[in-house]
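Box 3.1 A note on notation
Throughout this textbook, protein chains are presented in two layers. The first layer is the amino acid sequence; the second is a token string describing backbone geometry. Keep the layers aligned when reading.
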Amino acid sequence: MRGARIVDTCKVETRDYPDPEPLGEEVVVRFEAAAICGSDLHALYESPGEKDFVPGHEAAGVVVAVDRPRVLKVGDRVCTAGGYTCGVCDMCAAGYFAYCRDSRGGYGFGLDGVHAERARICERALLRLPDWLSFEQGCLILDPVGTTYHAHKRIGTNATHVVVIFGLGPMGLGSLCVARHLGARVIGVEPVAYRRELATKLGAEAVIDPADGDVAERIGELTGGRGADRVLECSGEAEPLHLALDVVRPFGHVAIIGENSEATIRPSDHFCRKEITLSGSTCFPLGEYGELLRAYEGGLRSAEMITHRFTIEQAAEAYETFAGRQTGKVIFVPAGREGA
């Protein structure tokens, strides 16, 4: 089979790999849609050295081979939901597979991932995809839809709220889609013009270019001086998180989604004198999967954030395009479906 290989900093090749074989509860999935994630970009593509595994962890496809499965069978439509987990620890029992205490590894991060024609994946890392949901929508469930839905659920976003989203890459665009589905007004903050325009198409009421002036002042104007009810930091940068804590109203809530190793806060101003709540989100518990499907049934507009489609043979171009930031979500599809 053919699959992607990250061979050095900003260098990707498409290579031949042995066809995967099912083993125990690990089944073989043929992928119909697989997305590039920001973590693929920053943790793998932009770091030096060859990675000895196929990258990618967001995908949807069809089970094509099984050995001793517990649940799945050949022909089942599935989407990815996590790494190779133990399935028995307290975190797994709660459905938080990303926090498994005895994980055997992550697909696309040590274990061969989904930027290939096929992969062998543990049943526990797969969810059945309904016939009425497209593979392209399914490949967005793990991160840009599921993670952001969980964040919005934790902070209680509803139709009475003004939501500010810092960073309109794929996670920010997913946050926007979920917030609009919940009926909230959305204000975006994003330096890239392409993504500002895409966010407007997806329903943002206003999108601020931080180069145009004081972001906090502009948000104050747009909220009548009240501030934001909810803020999601999706950029992964320190300054936007600081601004998020500034612009949220008293008793509001800020959710961190963008990965960031450090940032500066002012505890007195941000917490003691405003009584705001700060939380983070990196996954969704499996118990929320049914809620995500109902959101799709109710018209959640996530597929519109996909702007570019490539085949696995075009892996180098796909990664380079995504790294250029003039995109929404970039996905791999079978030959014949490529193109924007």
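The chain has two domains: 2-140+302-332, 144-280. The radius of gyration is 20 Å.
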